[in-house]
Amino acid sequence: MGTGVDNVDDEEKVADPDAWHSWKPRVFKEVQMQYRHLLVGPDPEEAWQAARHSAVERSYCRMCIKRPRRAETETLGFFLGEEDGFRDDGMVEPFQPPQEADTRPVPRWLTEAALLLKNPGRSSSAEVLVEGEVMQVSLLSTQQGLLLLPEGMMFRRLSGSAFAVPPGSSCCRDCCRLRAAWRVWFARNNELVLSTGSVTRPEEAVELVLDEDELIMALELALKHLEAGASCCIRVSEHWGVGPLLPSGNPSLRGAAVWIYLVLHEVTNEPLPLEHPDDTSRLDFARRKKEQGNLHFAKGDVASLARAVRRYASGAAAAEAAEGDEAAQLLTMMCLNGAQAQLRRGRFEEAIQLCDRVLGTGPNIKAFFRRAAAREALGDYLGAEEDLRTAAKRSDDPALRQQLAKVQGLRQQQKEQQRQAYGGVFEKMKLQDEEKEKKEKEASERRAKEAQKEAEERAKEAQRMQAQEQERTQEEQAKATVESLMKSEEPAEDFRNVRLSTGPEEKGVTALMPPPNTHVTPPPPPVEDYQVPSFLLRKQKKPLTRDSK
After folding, report:
1. DSSP 548
2. How many other β-carbons are positioned within 10 Å of the β-carbon of residue 65?
3. At CB < 8 A and 24+ separation, what contacts does 368-377 make?
4. Is the pLDDT of residue 47 over 80?
5. Please, are residues 133 and 119 in contact by the beta-carbon 8 Å criterion?
6. Which pLDDT belongs to residue 298?
7. CA 427 vs CA 343, 430, 436, 441: distances in Å
8. Residues 6 or more apart whose Cβ sits within 8 Å of residue 419
């Protein structure tokens, strides 16, 4: 016995069992429910016993509801998520369909309460508060429930082990031989329609081969979910209540809502494609599946085409596991036949996959042709045209060229329709693109002109700065020259050939500087050991001496 901590989410763990806690709805989001005194039994050894609700799983639950305010106690049985159930006081052996008088409405909060309690048992109970009323609910039992087909085909396991088939048990597969017994009642008045005999004696059971279109679809689907020794009941709506109830074909339903009680006694499955011991048995199995598939394909109805696809797939798996040329040929034929069946069923993507599998081993005209048909059906006229062109190059069959011409016409028609439907849109988009390109070009030219103008201004500024720098350098040189002249001890420069300015009198350093545009003759260099020529020498009078007198 626990406190429900293992059953609720982390944010919903019960810290105080006496306090009310809000439940987060799982199925009906609008339900507002609070609970307390939550007691959940220990986890069962078999996981299928837990209440479950999903797209396929819909557990069948028996719950006890006590309403103290009304002093009422009631036990209801229902599939999770449904709003109609029945008064269910316990299991009746063998199964009997519920009476119309036992029909009860199932409030939505009861589905949420079953998911809250989750695991059945005497210890699985809680007090719930819904719309101001406090009630005590207990989850008594759960059974596996499956939605086999939409629009009303519910499966409820009555006996058996688990959702998954237990190890060592035999589950029905396609083409298995089995012995089973069943009973059928009309849902409107519980009138017994058919009984194959005692459901407890296997010798009175019906022997048949599964998935050979011998029974109503509800029976075949239910048998595939049972192992030997298990039983179930099936609720079938008028939509699916069509087909034979016996392999002989009679009686047959024509749109009747029924209840079916089914017991599976024995199952003998044929080996799987990979369970055959050698290539010989694998090839025999592939040939047999090919023949079976062809027979179902010839019937042409949707269910038979689906069976043909399954037979071809089994044969292809066996052929793929074998070696040799015959195995490769069988694999190719099985894939091509399967592609044709998928085309008939309208499963074009699956048909393309099978053709791709064939073409992966080498070119094949049929594979190209059937893939082109699938692509044409999907509106891929370009891909279909490519496949047909490739096939037409390898074959002179006029049917290929006719189909190619047809696809080319469809492609042109598709282009014309697109042009008419979206021509205005495309033209508008084209104009918008042209306008955008024009604006971008103008902006680019404007930026280029601005950049050129800026470069010219920078060049002018550089020239101006260079001229100023030259003037500054000349002034500094002139100033240095004047200072050197003033400090020099050499004779003053010869200004004899300098033409004096008649301008106003200059003062300061400027007055000492020579006039502009004048040539200053530097003083000649000093001459050392210079000897005057003799002809330039003047005769000097000899000094008078005492003797000369």
Report:
1. T
2. 17
3. 369/400, 369/403, 370/336, 370/339, 370/340, 370/343, 371/339, 372/403, 372/407, 373/343, 374/339, 374/342, 374/343, 374/348, 374/349, 375/348, 376/407, 376/410, 377/343, 377/346, 377/348
4. no
5. no
6. 94
7. 39, 5, 14, 21
8. 426
Using a CB cutoff of 8 Å and minimum separation of 24, what contacts does 288-297 make?
A: 288/315, 289/314, 289/315, 289/318, 289/334, 290/315, 290/330, 290/333, 290/334, 290/337, 292/175, 293/334, 293/337, 293/338, 293/341, 294/337, 296/213, 297/337, 297/340, 297/341, 297/344
Helices and strands per DSSP (H, E), number in the chain = 10, 17
For residue 497, the 8-state DSSP code is T
Q: Amino acid identity of 409?
A: G
pLDDT of res. 24 = 92
Spatial separation of the C-alpha atoms in residues 66 and 151, rounded to whole Å? 33
Q: How many C-beta atoms lie closer than 10 Å to residue 548's C-beta? A: 7
Instruction: Express each pLDDT in 369-413 by its tens digit.
Output: 999 999 999 999 999 999 999 999 988 888 888 999 999 898 888
Given the structure tokens 């996959």, which residue do they identify?
353
